[in-house]
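Blinded run. Sample ID left blank on purpose so nobody reads anything into the name before looking at the predicted structure. Input follows.
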Amino acid sequence: MTGPLRIAAPDGVAPAAAYSHVVLGTGRFVAVSGQLPLDEGGALVGEGDPAAQARQVFENLRRCLAAAGAGFDDVVKLTFFVTDMAHMPAVRAARDEHIAPDRLPAASAVQVAALVRPEFLMEIEAFAVLPE
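Blinded prediction complete.
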């Protein structure tokens, strides 16, 4: 296997529109903590702007994955925590700038009452698998 295998529609399961139902791979596991819309100095990016926050979060994910020697092609699972499901189109748009539609990982989207600071509209974590 040259990377994670993605199964968008297992037999008997409705096809996934924006994620893969199943992703499997073997190798080294990488867990990236939930990333927030903070720049490298710790300043909030995009107050009140879900698109700007999503772009910053995905940039932070990219940098964290790179630190582990990984990239978005290695991601097997994303979890989106949003304060309002209305932010999901912005999250998907930012994701689509980094992940090709035929390489979508498994995903979960959860609306939460609050994040660690009220100005954060989202937090996103990633799991990746690197070849041995």
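Unblinding after everyone has recorded impressions. Residues 27 and 131 are 4 Å apart (CA to CA).
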